[in-house]
């Protein structure tokens, strides 16, 4: 091979080498593109799988929530219709029977069914306020010992009915008077005792203990334990014990009833008071529900309740005006006030109340004012009365089924001095009379 051929071959080799390098680069680029496409495809596939799983989880949660709420509505229908059936049925029996003992039994049953129905309604209203974040804790001075015993006494009827034993232990170190939300504390304790009574068999024992735990100089922690010898709770069921709209034992064959809101409300209330709630239980060996809340110590207050302040005939000769459009409510108020000796004038609406007050402004010591009335409502009637010289000083107390915070604020904004919620409690009425009528 001559020198020219050698040079020609070398040039061709170099050209082939360059083409080979270019081809290799193309192959690498194609491989990289394939790997990138595969990685991207895999990433998209994984992301799609994650999204599908999230959608599936969200769907399952939504379906579970819907099932829980459907079951809750079914329970609420049962919980409301059962006492209503008792009220209607026992009323019919009482009207037909001539036996005084049978009438007494019917009335006692009606009273118990009414209280149960009110509890159900209050639970629903409380839960709606909690979910709407309109629930507030209100602190004031109260007697601890008295609060504890009131909470327990509410359930005495059911305890006696099931022949159970209710034991109360109150730590002697607890102060006589504390500052906190007495009503909500009593609500939590009563709810826990009610559950204990419900899930404890006939002849069982419920023990309520109040403990003192020192915190700071004027602060302490109240711990309350409610222990029963009932059916207990499994570890699996304890995980959803405080969930809203759920019950440990679901389905139509439930033995014990209940709305499924009580423990949820207890948990929310305790946490709003700055405390915590927990449970210890073993299936078949009973349960122990406990909660702890911080309270303040304070000096003593008068322990007399409203009823004890009212002696028969104490207000004889005095007059009050009550604006109330519903006849049965007028009958109830008249019956409550009968023993006080006070004279009551009724007005069927706000307009009549204004006219009666105008006709003799100095006659009345107090005005009780319903809110929702025909012709003129309680707000407008109050404003009209307050516009007169004589009406500026007379105590006007709202007496209404409007019991939300904004309703109470509206009463004060209209010029009222205080508020009483319906259903009416005789002791609360007597308290207001004692506060606003000086003898």
Question: Which overall shape is indicated by the principal axes computed on the Cα atoms?
Answer: elongated
* Count of helical stretches: 13
Cα radius of gyration in angstroms = 35 Å
Q: What's the total count of β strands?
A: 12
- Class of secondary structure makeup: alpha/beta
Helix/strand order:
HHEHHEEHEEHHEEHEHEHEHEHEH
Proportion of residues in helical segments:
40-55%
Mean pLDDT: 81
Largest sheet geometry:
7 strands, mixed
Structural description of this entry:
By secondary structure, the chain is of the alpha/beta class. It has 13 helices and 12 strands. Helix 2 packs across helix 7. The longest helix has 94 residues. It starts with a helix and ends with a helix. About 2% of the residues have low confidence.
List key phrases describing it.
7-stranded mixed sheet; 439 residues
Q: How is this structure best summarized?
A:
By secondary structure, this protein is of the alpha/beta class.
Write the topology of this structure.
Layout: H1 3-96, H2 100-131, E1 140-143, H3 144-153, H4 156-161, E2 165-170, E3 177-180, H5 182-199, E4 205-214, E5 219-228, H6 235-238, H7 262-272, E6 276-281, E7 287-297, H8 306-309, E8 319-323, H9 327-337, E9 343-347, H10 350-359, E10 366-369, H11 378-386, E11 396-400, H12 405-414, E12 418-421, H13 426-436
Parallel strand pairs: 2-4, 8-9, 8-10, 10-11, 11-12
Antiparallel strand pairs: 1-3, 3-7, 4-5, 5-7, 6-7
